Every structure is written in C-alpha cells, then in structure tokens.
Amino acid sequence: MTDLTIERDVLIEAPADVVWRTITEPDQISRWFADRVELDLRSGGAGTFVFENSDRAHHVAPLVVTTVEPPRQFAFRWGHPEGEAPVPGNSVLVEFTLTPEGSERTRLRVSETGLEGIGWPGAQKASYAEDHRNGWAFFTGRLESLLAARPE
C-alpha cells in the first residue's frame, strides 16, 4: 500500500495571532505560498490560489473554505474536478492547525487528507502525495523564514 499521508509539523517563532494572519490573509499568503490569492475567509467561501512558477506551467487552484476558527484552525478543499463542488471523494482537505507554545511560538500542523477516496489510479495518488509532501516542506520553510525575520 502506498503511503498517501501528507503532513507537516513545524514550530514557528511567532505568536498564534501572527501566524493566523499570515496563513489566512491574501496579501500575507502571497508572501510565502501562492503568487496571487483570492479568498473569502468564511465557511463555504470560495478562493483561488495562482502559482506562477518558472519551471512549470501557470497553475490555478480553486478552493472552498470549510473551517475558520481563529486563531486555531483553517481548512479548505481543493483538487476537485472543474465544474464540481469540492466534497469528500472528489477533493482533498487541507487543514492548518495552530497550537500556541508559550506566547511567542506556535506549532503549525498542515495536513492534506482524502486522497485515498479520490478515483485516481494508484500511481497518480502516490505522485500527488509525494509532490505535496515536498511542496508543504518547501512552503512551510518559507513561512518559517518569513516569520522569523519579522521585526519585533
């Protein structure tokens, strides 16, 4: 059985409210994740992440917000077929969980689940899981660096 687990756990040198703003406000998200961001930050709200990488084609990722619980949890579904609403079985769920560790540090857990329920071939699921494990490692690293460099 292929490992479809996509999880990343990092300790960020910033208070939970700062991390929350950085992962939920479009102008902040574009500093560490997507190049362009549209986001209606409410349960059921829609959004779009646009990635403009030089090494691959322009990629637009539509999403639907599922959970907004400041400053603890933010989640959305993406990866669904065009023209369909994202639901379990046709999309994956990305969850950001923030846990304060003292007043100036936050443990951030990012998980992407639901891949096993999508009707893709096994090799496609495995490739997606590997790409996204690497992607979350890269992007959470950028987030850590961004927040570590913030002025006191």
Account of the protein in words:
By secondary structure, the protein is an alpha+beta fold. It has one domain: START domain (Alpha-D-Glucose-1,6-Bisphosphate, Chain A, domain 4). The protein is built from three helices and seven strands, in the order E-H-H-E-E-E-E-E-E-H. A seven-stranded antiparallel β-sheet has the order 1-7-6-5-4-3-2. A hairpin with a 5-residue loop joins strand 6 and strand 7. The chain is globular, with a radius of gyration of 15 Å. The N and C termini lie far apart (47 Å). The mean pLDDT is 92.
- Order the strands across the largest sheet as they lie in space: 1-7-6-5-4-3-2
The CATH superfamily is: START domain
User: Could you name the ranges where pLDDT drops below 50 across 5 or more consecutive residues?
Assistant: none
Distance N terminus to C terminus?
A: 47 Å
The fraction of residues in strands falls at 25-35%
Whole-number average pLDDT?
A: 92
Question: Could you give the order of the helices and strands?
Answer: EHHEEEEEEH
> Could you say what the CATH architecture is?
2-Layer Sandwich
CATH topology: Alpha-D-Glucose-1,6-Bisphosphate, Chain A, domain 4
CATH class: Alpha Beta
Radius of gyration (CA) equals 15 Å
For the secondary structure, the number of strands is 7
**What's the structural domain tally?**
1
* SS content category: alpha+beta
Level of helix content? 25-40%
